[in-house]
Design goal:
The complex is a heterodimer of chains A (497) and B (94).
Chain A: H1 3-27, H2 34-40, H3 47-58, H4 61-74, H5 76-82, H6 88-107, H7 112-120, H8 123-156, H9 160-178, H10 183-208, H11 211-222, H12 237-248, H13 255-258, H14 267-289, H15 291-298, H16 308-316, H17 319-357, H18 363-384, H19 392-416, H20 422-442, H21 451-469, H22 475-482, H23 485-496
Chain B: H1 13-42, E1 52-53, E2 56-57, H2 58-82
Antiparallel strand pairs in B: 1-2
The chains are: A mainly alpha (497), B mainly alpha (94).
């Protein structure tokens, strides 16, 4: 047991979450209603907190544990693929943009499902979005738990399964107890720790080893394929393009990330956040993933590739520094899982139970049900994580792709195309979801591109075709979403007189 | 469209649509700058004939690192030249 590492980790975690809760109470927005405050921080986020919460919700165990693991065996071609995520925040904010924030305020939406409910006025859309969220976010959470357990395994020497049980129990209980509240602020604190951790890691790396120039020669002799393109990760031009879609622009379809597009305080916050988010994502990616191939030279025989980065950190840094650096990804995993668990259980309770099974449930019953749903989903996900895959990154990629194939077309077209209809949304959403799962099982990577590109293309095509074939959306919806509110008031008067 | 005469579109949305299109162009630039440069220098080149800069394969240095540094500066100019401050409250102010 490495107490010198473990104690700083526990302290750092406790301190971050304590600061998050205290600051949150102090910054609480006075006039916002409960739902607004609870789910999206009263639409009051400033640029720094917005940037970090956006990026942390999209990049967690994958970036810090998973990617260096894949890069450990696949080399630079994988890092290039991962670098396609640098623009993710820019695209989510820039494309959903001010329009999403304005529309969300007009219709009082606090979740993506609220947006769909108002725009398409259809239970089938709400149900489809809930199913997509439950399947793929659960898969995403499995990856997060694997990442957390791997870190604990490397530090404490406990067997993987014991580490998973401890970590899983801690996260699930914390979620049930603490809820969503302080997540955005803790994300920002952890983000800063991660960047500092990255800087420290590079400094120690250059002191303790021969540096990149010294190690690359050996890498080329022993594993020439790791410096080549397309290389072992198959970064052909078409594949690389798919990853620009997957990690870049289609990230708009990630419900837990795009909901952040409703949260900024004003356009100044949004502008600054666009500028920061590219830079910060680039730092996250380059600091951690770039070391993967060099770890291969230093420790050529790791049996679990996901252990590449934790092994390096523990070996070249003094215990307490390693503890602080490792606490950052652990904390990021906790806050991601935390908000995902709540999104999933909200989807079960709010979108399915309240809509279809028992619309008249009492407050107490809802609270009780939410509590149990969160617990059951949490435990279920931990059980799935008991048999971990070789590379957690591949579950992350699968889950991200599924969410994007389901949600991309309904969000973007719903926001920018007046003609997008309910049937268009229903067909495109289910086609995206089902074609992604089926293609992934039967015929992965059609046309030499990731499954995501084909499924999203199918989904977009059907959105356009079916919308033109079905009845245009009602004038009511158009006025609600596109009309200036003054004009809406006027036309209301006119119809009375 | 015949329906459009019945309501006045929110005056801010024209600018929003423009910002969306500019962001799409940035995506194209991102692909060319990072993906294009890397593939142009490094695609199908055997490790033996590759050159290295600061310990990185040349294609990764120019495309992955330098390309991304340039890409990180571009949003600053995009916001400066194409984005406009506006109210994002539900009511249209003008």
């Amino acid at each position: 047991m490495k107490w010198d590492v473990l104690i700083p980790i526990c302290l750092a975690l406790i301190v971050t979450f304590a600061i998050g809760i205290v600051l949150h109470k102090r910054l609480k927005v006075k006039n916002a209603n409960f739902q607004e405050d609870y789910f999206i921080g009263g639409r009051s986020l400033g640029p720094l907190v917005l940037t970090f919460t956006l990026l942390a919700s999209a990049a967690s165990a994958g970036t810090f544990i998973g990617s260096p693991g894949v890069a450990y065996n696949s080399g630079f071609s994988w890092i290039l693929i991962l670098l396609t995520q640098v623009g993710m925040g820019v695209y989510i904010l820039g494309i959903l943009g001010k329009k999403f924030a304005i529309v969300a305020r007009k219709i009082n939406a606090v979740t993506l499902t609220d947006f769909f409910k108002e725009r398409y006025q259809s239970k089938a859309v709400v149900l489809g979005s809930s199913i997509g969220i439950i399947i793929f976010i659960s898969a995403y959470m499995v990856a997060q738990f694997v990442g957390g357990a791997r870190i604990l395994e490397s530090i404490t020497g406990l067997p993987y399964k014991t580490g998973l049980m401890i970590f899983g129990l801690a996260v699930v209980l914390y979620t049930v107890y603490g809820g969503f509240r302080a997540v955005a602020i803790t994300d920002a604190i952890q983000g800063i720790i991660m960047i500092l951790g990255g800087v420290l890691l590079w400094i120690f790396f250059f002191i303790k080893t021969e540096g990149f120039s010294g190690l690359i020669g050996q890498l080329v002799t022993e594993h020439p394929e790791m410096v080549e393109l397309p290389g072992p990760s198959g970064a052909t031009p078409l594949m690389l393009f798919s990853y620009f879609m997957l990690f870049g622009i289609a990230a708009i379809g990630l419900p837990h990330a795009s909901v952040r597009g409703m949260t900024f305080k004003n356009t100044e916050s949004m502008h600054k956040s666009i500028i920061y988010s590219g830079l910060i994502m680039a730092l996250f990616t380059i600091f951690f993933a770039t070391l993967g191939p060099f770890v291969k030279v230093l420790y050529p025989n790791l049996s679990v590739p996901d252990m590449a980065l934790p092994t390096l950190i523990l070996d070249i840094m003094p215990g307490w520094v390693a503890g602080i650096v490792l606490s950052a990804p652990l904390a990021a995993i906790m806050s991601t899982v935390n908000s995902m668990l709540l999104v999933t259980s909200a989807s079960v309770v709010k979108d399915i139970y309240l809509n279809y099974i028992n619309p008249k449930a009492s407050e107490r019953k809802i609270a009780k049900l939410s509590y149990f749903t969160t617990l059951i989903i949490g435990v279920g996900v931990v059980l799935f994580a008991l048999t971990p895959p070789d590379y957690l990154q591949f579950i992350v990629v699968y889950a991200i792709g599924g969410l994007e194939a389901t949600f991309f077309a309904p969000i973007v077209f719903g926001l920018y195309w007046k003609r997008a209809t309910t049937w268009g949304a229903i067909i495109s959403m289910y086609a995206g979801l089902i074609s992604y799962i089926l293609l992934g099982e039967l015929f992965p990577n059609p046309f030499g591109m990731q499954t995501i590109v084909t499924s999203t293309a199918v989904s977009i095509f059907l959105m356009i075709a079916v919308s033109y074939l079905s009845k245009r959306p009602s004038q009511e919806v158009i006025i609600k979403f596109w009309g200036s509110q003054r004009a809406a008031a006027n036309s209301g008067n006119r119809s009375i007189s | 469209m015949k329906d459009q005469e019945e309501f006045i579109e929110d005056s801010r949305f024209a600018q929003c649509d423009k910002e969306m299109r500019v962001t799409m162009w940035l995506f194209v630039i991102n692909i060319l700058l990072v993906g294009g440069v890397s593939l142009w220098i490094g695609l199908n080149k055997p490790a033996a004939s590759m050159s290295y800069i600061l310990g990185f394969p040349a294609w990764f240095f120019w495309g992955g690192l330098v390309g991304n540094v340039i890409f990180c500066i571009l949003p600053y100019f995009m916001v400066k030249f194409f984005y406009k401050d506006m109210s994002i409250e539900a009511e249209d102010e003008r």
